[in-house]
Amino acid sequence: MKNFVFNNPTKLIFGKDTIITRLRAELPTDKTILVTFGGGSVRKNGVYDQVIKTLEGLSFVEFWGIEPNPKVETIRKAVALGREHHAGFVLAVGGGSVIDASKLIAGAIPSERDAWDIVLSGKITEESLPLGTVLTIPATGSEMNSGGVISSIETKQKFGFSGAYPRFSVLDPTVTFSLPAYQVSCGIADTFVHVMEQYLTTTGQSRLMDRWAEGILLSLKELAPIIKEDPQNYDARADLMLCATMALNDFIRIGVTQDWSTHAIGHEITALTGLTHGHTLAIVLPGTMRVLSYTLKREKTLQYAERIWHITEGTEDERITAAIEATEQFFRSLDLPTRLNEMNIGREVSDEIVRRFAERDVKLGEAGTVDAECTRKILDSCY
């Protein structure tokens, strides 16, 4: 196990009716609150009304229009609004995209740097405005981590950055009942791959981290068909919401190596085509495994095959193949196509991703072996 320092300062407020009963106590009474929203689904599911009722008597201003895969061009408008009203607190109401964008907004309002320059630098170094969240879509884990991913329409690029942790996050599983099935499936895929990026590396690092990660993967396996059959099953929705949070709140990465090559490739696909982030991961992860699981990730894939899919018979190569096929079939059971050509994504997209990685001299993965050439092999296997 590697040396580590673990500190997650986000207060998690979880359960039914927590927006109405718990949010007000977390909000400042002496600052103007910039409340950020996405495209309007919160008006349909009742979240907007609950939040506005909670804000009665406080000073606040609303910003609408943060897109899925949030764009820096939109974020600049929110920053300008926050500065105009001298906002001293940001409340993000939505899914991971709204929260990611709000982390950048909270960092950019008091900064002299342009929002995209902050993203390109990789980190908010200035003191951010305090941030709270009301989560509506379980997927990214952004409600309990410091990371964010932002796109640029102008450059067709998508990069991650590190900002401030939310001071608190309110999670009410009932607000997820009305989510479209595709959005739920992409959230499950996103959560699954978050775990795999931290788990599918090398063996012998931490028994505890392995078991925690495997617990989330097994839970997702069980929850997916339950939610598909009964979308209003509260306990299943609550478990899924907590799985998504625990998958990326630093908890399962303590003292172990990480990969993140699948995410890096997926981000490029989204930037170039607009395909939903979680869906790109359902396509790329099996490809990453097809290229790396027989060599670099061999021992861990065999462990994964046995513990997650109960694959114990056959040669080692046969078990690895079966595990990859089981993983791809799991994503297909979510009604997510798992090949680039199924989504009408041509070879020119792969060519551009490889060109970009070569230009940046990218070396991804736990061992730094996923370069442009390896990325080409991964993408070729996704057709």
UniProtKB/TrEMBL annotation:
Keyword Oxidoreductase listed: yes
InterPro entries in alphabetical order: ADH_Fe/GldA, ADH_Fe_C, ADH_Fe_CS, BDH-like
The Fe-containing alcohol dehydrogenase-like C-terminal domain, residue ranges: 190-364
Gene3D superfamilies attached to this UniProt entry: 3.40.50.1970, Dehydroquinate synthase-like - alpha domain (1.20.1090.10)
Superkingdom, natural source: Bacteria
Gene Ontology molecular function: alcohol dehydrogenase (NADP+) activity; butanol dehydrogenase (NAD+) activity; metal ion binding; methylglyoxal reductase (NADPH) (acetol producing) activity
GO cellular component terms listed in the entry, alphabetical order: cytosol
Protein EC: 1.1.1.-
Name the record gives this protein: Alcohol dehydrogenase YqhD
Organism: Porphyromonas macacae
